[in-house]
Structures are given as C-alpha cells and as structure tokens.
Amino acid sequence: MALPKVYVGLPIQESGRKLLEGKVDFKIWEKEGAPPRNELLEDIKDVEGLLSGLPIKVDAELFAAAPKLKVVSNFAVGYDNIDVAEATKRGICVTNTPEVLTPATADLAFALILASARRIIEANAFLRSGDWKVWHPELLVGQEVAGSTIGIIGLGQIGQAVARRARGFDMKILYFDPFRRPELETQLEARYVQLDELLRESDFVTLHCILDDKTRGLIGERELRLMKKNAILINAARGPLVDQGALYKACSEKWIWGAGLDVFAKEPVPLDEPLLTLPNVTTVPHIGSASIAARNGMAARSAENLLAVLEGKRPRDLVNKEVWK
Ligand code: GLV
Questions:
Q1: Are residues 256 and 107 located together in one domain of the fold?
Q2: Residues 117, 89: one domain?
Q3: Whose CA is nearest to atom 5 of ligand 1?
Q4: In this structure, are 129 and 207 located in the same domain?
C-alpha cells in the first residue's frame, strides 16, 4: 500500500526525520525561510500530514489547497500561526511540542533577565570599542537580580520553570494567570496577584502566556506606566503581547529601566525598529527554544504527533481536542 504523503515545511533535525522514514512518503523544505506560498500550496495538494513551523501561515486558503489533510503538526509550542478554529471546523488535528522546549525557553528568559539587569550586551560592546580605560565605581552598574521580585504573567510550564530558576536567585515570586494554581503557589512559594499589582510590585516582569485575542496588546502604555522605574520587562513569549511603540517610549523616557526581548510584533524585526536603537533594550532573534536538546526534542515530538494521527491514534499533544471523538 502506498505510504501517506506528508510535507515537512522546515528542515527539521535528524531525530524527527528518522521517525518519518519508512512510515510516510515525505518531502522536506530544506532551504532557509518559509517555502514561497505558491510552491507550498502546490506541494501540499495531496498530503495527509503537514509538519509546519512558525513562519508558515496555516489558514483557510492552505486548508482549501490540501483537501486530504488530517493533521497539522507544529514544530513549536505556540500555534498562533495556525487558524485552529478553521482546522477544527474541517476536522483537522492541530498538535504542538510542549515540555521538550520548557527548560531551554526558561533558560533564555533568565538569560535575558541577567543580561538586561547587568547590561551584558552593552558591556561587551564597551570593552570591544576600546573605551575601557579604568575600573570605575560607577562603570556599567546595573540592577541586582538576587533577592528582587519577579512577576510572572502566565504560570504554565514555561512560567513554572522560570519560577524554579527564580527561587535559586532568592527572588520573591508573584504571578498572574487566568487560572489560579494553589498547589503551585505552595510548591513554588509564588503569590497570586492581579495584573496591576504584579506590574506595580515587580522588579522583573516576564511574559509566558499564549497569544490570542485576549492577550494581544496586554502590555501597553497604561501597564508600562504602572511598572517601577527600576523594572525590566522580559518577553520570550510572543511579540504582539506588547505594544512596541509604548515600550519604546517607556524605555527611552525611562518610565522603566529596560527590556529584554526575544520576540517582536513583526519577525524578523525590521532594522529600522526604534527599539533597536536603545542601549537599555537587549534583543535576540526568537531563540527561546534554540538549544540542541530542545530542537531535537521538538523534531521528534512533532514527527510523533504527525505519525500518530496518520496511524489513527490520538496524538499526545492535541491542541483542538474536540476533533478527536
Ligand atoms: C516558539 O516560539 C514556540 O512557540 O515553540
């Protein structure tokens, strides 16, 4: 019997490819960047499975071009690149890759906390420019992380992993989440507060919630004005959670001390983005899950989810649970 056809829209690691071999007839987009839309739509017309990633917009047009599609397996924990409601309407399973990238993403959020607080990127540029003439008591002084207060917005798996790291730094932990988590409050010594209180009391505010219609623009001018003057905003979740124009004003006019950003409203971030001109804004190019272990895990997990659906089994990480009857 012919193997089911699958399109893999990004050059995934060997750990995923190995699982697909012999089980499905797959084609992989090996080049950098997303496949051009017309090529993608042509390549998926007979497929039953699509292994997609953040640069691929999976919408009604794509579903219409792939009438045999049974599963969209995203190579990411977030799935805001996918129109899940439309997939559900068509009975198509959507899956993601939680857990395997939790440590890497929490590490990166913490790297941004430390780098922003201690001005690591600025200090590196200062040294290399030859400006380091003498040890000075005020040279590149920053904020102390140990013993400070962290406000975690979204206490899902990544938020919890950030809290565990924060405990190692003797930080006081506040969190805000639509769901209160009493068992975690005890375990992590985290205090549940409303968003405004979190913003008013935290030295570090870190975002770990999903992007949807409720959270888009969650941090705007009003919220930034509630934050402390010494506070640092960290975003390793999704760019559109933050109003970038307001953040520019907050960081340039020093309503807050700075920001550490892994994600942007538009990615790749345009080089004329005003935030990139500010020394108190630390930026990296959406590398939250970019550890070798996490990426190998994501490749394997996305392949497993895809194969499960094609083999008629419930996938481990089904996002739209209502499609599985
Ligand atoms: C990365 O941003 C992911 O959602 O996995």
A1: yes
A2: no
A3: 76
A4: yes
102-117 and 157-168 are packed helices; what angle lies between their axes, rounded to 10 degrees?
50
181-210 residue pLDDT tens: 999 999 999 999 999 999 999 999 999 999
Active site residue 286: yes
Q: Please say if 267 is a catalytic residue.
A: yes
Q: What is the rounded average pLDDT of the residues 281-290?
A: 98
pLDDT above 70: percentage of residues in the chain: 100
Total domains in the chain come to 2
Identify the pLDDT of residue 1: 82
Are 82 and 46 in a shared domain?
yes
Catalytic residue (one of 48, 201, 223, 286): 286
Q: Is 303 exposed, middle or buried (0-12, 13-18, 19+ CB in 10 A)?
A: buried
Measured in angstroms, how far is the CA atom of residue 273 from the centroid of ligand 1? Answer: 22
Q: Residue 154's domain spans which residues?
A: 102-283
Domain co-membership, 127 together with 244: yes
CATH number of the structural domain spanning residue 56: 3.40.50.720
The pLDDT tens digits for 4-19 are 999 999 999 999 999 9
CA of 214 to the centre of ligand 1 (A): 19
Q: Are residues 190 and 256 in the same domain?
A: yes
288 Cβ below 6 A of ligand 1:
yes
What distance in Å separates the CA atoms of residue 267 and residue 286, rounded to the nearest whole number?
8
The pLDDT tens digits of the residues spanning 148-186 come to: 999 999 999 999 999 999 999 999 999 999 999 999 999
Instruction: Tell me, yes or no, whether 75 and 158 share the same domain.
Output: no
Evaluate whether 196 touches 169 at the Cβ level (below 8 Å). no
Q: What is the mean pLDDT of residues 100-107?
A: 98
Beta strand spans in the chain (E): 5-8, 25-28, 49-52, 71-74, 93-95, 149-153, 172-176, 190-192, 204-207, 232-235, 258-261, 281-283
Instruction: Indicate which atom in ligand 1 lies nearest the CA of residue 76.
Output: 5
Do strands 190-192 and 93-95 pair parallel, antiparallel, or not at all (unpaired)?
unpaired
Q: Out of 208, 238, 295, 301, which one is annotated catalytic?
A: 238
Determine the Cα–Cα distance for residues 317 and 8; give it in Å rounded to an integer. Answer: 18
